[in-house]
From TrEMBL:
Gene3D superfamilies found in the cross-reference section: 3.40.50.11900
Similarity remark: Belongs to the FldB/FldC dehydratase alpha/beta subunit family.
Stated name of the protein: 2-hydroxyacyl-CoA dehydratase
Database matches in InterPro entries: FldB/FldC_alpha/beta (IPR010327)
Superkingdom as given in the UniProt entry: Bacteria
Species: Nonomuraea composti
Length: 425
């Protein structure tokens, strides 16, 4: 059995990313301000103001795919900082300490003028504080609020009833912080924030994510799976870093059309599909081939990752107040992925929607709620195997992990599927 070839949209996204980064480096070299942003902060403000930016986690994933994460973690260690905690952002921090930054992937990450991150954990905040100590770098932190009341089925509320889902106190806080961020950026960069342009950016993001929702739903109901996560992740995630552009919106539409065409033509990632798997956790960037190793021997296909699913459920926000709608997009973003019962109930919903037979759960040190995620899925009838490793640190990946997953498939998932004749429900 062979995996389907990589999607044309994935190849286009890869080409665009290289061209975009070369243009970004040229703009920064010409004197434009450059911002480095955490994944969970509102990029839409920077898009509106045409401030060049890159995303810390994207850079870490690129470095790791190029097998260079060990180099940057080593630079962090040489400065006396821990290289074994929150590696996803620590890898990027290592770029600040590189004596030869141009030797990095694609010519290296330019030195940022502005860092923006949310204070969602002690370690993350400290990493960005260290960035802010570098000459010429300003760190602008955003608070991370919490709410005692957790809505049921938040994914149904978020598009239009986000005030009810997130809560007014959290929205008041983040809206005020974003308005202050705009004033800070106008003062420090000389760029102006245009309300009409902001509305255009917000509308483009909603259109992009509506296409992602259609794609998610199509993959979920198609048997056998038309593609695996190896094919879907580039087509959804690279455009996510360009939210608010026509290119990203249009690529999301073409991604849907390409998947639809594969479904109509009867293409399958694994024609002899015997089990549908769910990958919970960040992408295993140093070994993306891991996801395909179980197709030929076991007929087991990874059909789900958080990237397409959270694009479908986590971003769409409609409303007359665009700044408050943007706050609603991010005030509970980490909750949706990592904080139970927000996250655990969503993972169960997604497992049912996709007809999942087994869940492989990557458990890193820093994401919270892993225990409750696994227990919720098991209670709902989905077998779970946990892998304790970090997605950008090869030192944490046990050589026997592939063997463990294979034995789990043989001993648990495939016998259960054979006895039931259908996916868990």
């Amino acid at each position: 059995m062979r995996s389907v070839k990589s999607l044309a949209t994935a190849a286009e996204a890869g080409r665009h990313q290289r061209e975009w980064f070369a243009d970004l480096r040229a703009r920064v070299a010409a004197g434009e301000p450059f911002a480095l942003l955490n994944a969970d902060v509102p990029h839409e403000i920077f898009r509106t103001m045409d401030i060049p930016y890159a995303v810390s986690q994207w850079w870490a994933s690129l470095v790791t795919a190029k097998q260079r994460s060990g180099h940057y973690l080593g630079l962090v260690r040489q400065r006396g900082y821990p290289d074994y905690s929150e590696q996803y952002n620590s890898v990027t921090l290592g770029s600040a300490f590189d004596p030869e930054p141009e030797a990095g992937p694609w010519g290296g990450l330019p030195r940022p003028d502005i860092i923006v991150g949310d204070a969602s954990g002690d370690v993350t905040r400290k990493i960005f504080d260290i960035w802010g100590q570098e000459p010429g770098v300003t760190f602008y932190p955003l608070e991370s609020g919490a709410e005692n009341e957790v809505p049921a089925n938040w994914w149904e509320l978020m598009p239009h009833r986000w005030e009810e889902a997130v809560g007014p106190a959290r929205l008041d806080l983040l809206t005020a912080e974003l308005e202050n961020l705009v004033r800070f950026l106008e003062t420090t960069t000389g760029r102006r924030f245009g309300e009409s342009r902001f509305r255009e950016v917000m509308a483009l993001v909603n259109e992009q994510e509506e296409w992602n929702r259609k794609t998610r739903d199509l993959i979920a109901r198609t048997r056998p799976a038309p593609l695996s996560v190896v094919d879907s992740i580039p087509s959804v995630m690279l455009p996510q870093w360009h939210r608010g552009t026509e290119w990203a919106r249009d690529l999301a539409r073409r991604f849907y059309e390409e998947v639809r065409d594969r479904v109509d033509a009867g293409h399958a990632a694994c024609p002899g599909e015997r089990a549908r798997l769910m990958w919970i956790g960040r992408g295993l960037w140093y070994d993306m081939g891991f996801y395909q190793r179980f197709q030929e021997e076991y007929g087991a296909v990874f059909v789900w990752s958080m990237y397409l699913a959270i694009a479908a459920d986590g971003y769409v926000r409609y409303g007359d107040d665009p700044m408050r709608a943007l706050a609603a997009r991010f005030a509970a973003f980490s909750d949706q992925l990592y904080t139970p019962p927000w996250s655990s109930e969503w993972y169960v919903k997604e497992a049912r929607l996709h007809g999942i037979d087994g869940v492989v759960h990557l458990v890193s040190d820093d994401p919270r709620g892993s225990y409750f995620t696994a227990r919720a899925l098991e209670s709902a009838g989905f077998p779970v195997i946990e892998i304790h490793a970090d997605n950008v640190d090869t030192r944490t990946f046990d050589d026997d992990i592939t063997g463990r997953v294979g034995r789990w498939l043989e001993d648990v998932v495939l016998p259960r599927r054979a006895s039931s004749g259908s996916p868990a429900a």
